Structure of Succinate-semialdehyde dehydrogenase / glutarate-semialdehyde dehydrogenase:
Amino acid sequence: MTVTPLGLTRPASATDAFLRQLVARVPGSAGATWPLTEVYTGDVLVGLPQSTPSDIEQAFAVAREAQRKWAATPVKERLAVFKRAHALFVGNARTVADLIQVESGKNRRMAIEESCDPPMVMSHYLRRAAKLLAPVKRGGPVPLLTTSTEIRQPKGVVGIIAPWNFPFATGISDAVPALMAGNAVVLKPDNKTALSPLYGIRMLEEAGLPEGLFQVVCGEGPDVGPTLIDHADYVMFTGSTATGKVIGEQAGRNLIGCCLELGGKNPMIVLEDANLAEAVAGAVFGAFGNTGQICMHVERIYLPESRYDEFKDAYVARARALDVRAAYDFGPEMGSLVSPDHLRRVQSHVDDAVAKGATVLCGGKPRPDLGPAFFEPTILEGVTKDMLCGVTETFGPVVALYRYRTVDDAVALANDTDYGLNASVWGRNAAAARAVAARIESGNVNINDILATAYASKGTPSGGVKNSGVGARHGDQGLLKYTDVQNLAVLKKQVMSPRPGQAYEKYVEGMLSGLKMMRRLRIR
Ligand code: NAD
């Protein structure tokens, strides 16, 4: 147990020896390391090896070798690993939360919730994967004499690039369906948050995942990314829209598939008949949960004129009363931003808005007394599109309130953005709320919830539209995207060309009347 200068008791699991063991699997042949810090104090916890291009090539070579054996392992045996892993992940959730907290600075309530994501994904695909991966026999062009079978082949080695805001969820959960489908994985986590995914991989190996199959390389994105993408057979990327465009371009040049899960500027529309207490509670989580660093969180709240003041007063009062501080227990309602660098970005958005005429209703300032990257829960009004935070994602605990006159206005305002990741509509009349939801250009829309219902529905694909991404995670496509289809076609008798001596005209007549007959029989 380490007591830090702030009087914080660092979690018992974050010992030097344990952290050194975790990072030991990261290749770093040049000897360079990154100082991975405890966010609450800024203390260096461990030196994270930085991988060179040749380390990355070697990681792919080892993964490729392991993948051949893994792909030949029956699906049932592969899935058995994840049944055991599920129990290990749930049993060690508190250690996972410790690591997530030290490296990201989020509060413990969010850290423990994040620890639950990979087990939820495992549960879902343990039910679905065998069916999705089983060959599917389809009819061929000539009934009885031809067949076509859809066979799912793993892509090979999948490169996963993950952000810092949900390092365990994005690092491990996105790898689970890839591995189940018979692929190997090379993960590049963010340097700041490599510990929790490294622990996840250790648990997967304890559950029986073959060594070598899940590799980790570390480094700054632009240093590691190009070599990683050049060696990958598919790329799963989660991060900002700007980086997503770079990754998508390189994947396109290499003619490999990619899934890009990017940023958002997510609206919340409160309808006249909404339960205001619930909407306020939702907006507190939506804007300040994970210190505003959730891709699906809320940055724009649209309120009817008639309820604006009532909502604003209750919301500001709740935001001011939030328990914000550094602690490794379940007390605080909000934790730190991820780094002083990120704090400067959030601060710059607020300063820019204020300079251009926005009003700060609460918050707006860093809190160095709480730790190096703490920022107050901040509510603004009067935000316009000439302000940074009026158009681009702030990704911090900063939210703007807007009035609307008609529901049509609200929908138009909600859609007036380049992003389309998540939205929510709040109202007691479910049919009316659904009708509004249907008009919002967004990959996810929640009714009377901010994001958890959509994100935790692992059976439904979840992704962004517009500048928020390409492709989706979860649902059948969340696993099938990691496979190629092999169309295995069999011709049992040579009937698809004229018989010996048959005039071509006769053959064509037979073929055309066959087409008509099959249509009548609804065969094709
Ligand atoms: P980021 O794009 O800066 O970095 C994400 C990852 O990409 C990191 O591992 C980084 O090292 C790496 N990277 C950076 N440049 C790279 C390059 N040129 N080549 C290869 N890799 C590179 O994003 P961030 O600041 O770490 O994360 C926050 C962003 O992620 C926010 O915009 C948030 O909305 C988004 N996000 C989206 C989802 C989603 O599911 N849609 C989920 C979480 C976060």
Summary: The chain has 20 helices and 20 strands. Residues 498-524 form one domain. The pocket of nicotinamide-adenine-dinucleotide is lined by residues 161-166, 170, 188, 190, 221-222, 225, 238-240, 243, 246-247, 261-264, 295, 393, 395, 421, 464, 469 (CB under 6 Å).
